[in-house]
Amino acid sequence: MGYEQARDELADVVRRLESGGTTLEESLALWERGEQLARICQEWLDGARKRLDAAVAAAPQRPDAGGSSGDKTARE
């Protein structure tokens, strides 16, 4: 299941829980499904963070421009 699908289903589960009108058994089943969906979303987000961190670490470092802080006394 993709992130967007899990997120959308999780939002629907939350809406259904917040609206009430479900039996205790239905509410528990919704809660459990919500926990599963939240885990799926977190796994996607963790994976995205790892990929982003790896891309940043692999990117060539730009040399510092130096002295571009706008501090007038540093240029004098």
Folded structure, characterized:
- Helix content is 74%, strand content 0%.
- With 76 residues, the protein is mostly helical.
- It has a single domain, classed as Orthogonal Bundle (Helix Hairpins).
- The termini are far apart.
- The mean pLDDT is 88.
Brief descriptors of the model:
3 helices; rod-shaped; Helix Hairpins; single chain; mainly alpha; 76 residues
Mean pLDDT: 88
Count of discrete alpha- or pi-helical segments spanning 4 or more residues? 3
Radius of gyration: 23 Å
| Amino-to-carboxy terminus distance | 59 Å
Pattern of helices and strands: HHH
Please, how many domains?
Answer: 1
Q: Which band does the percent of strand residues land in?
A: under 5%
Portion in helices = over 70%
Oligomer: single chain
- CATH classification class: Mainly Alpha
Structural class: mainly alpha
How many strands?
0
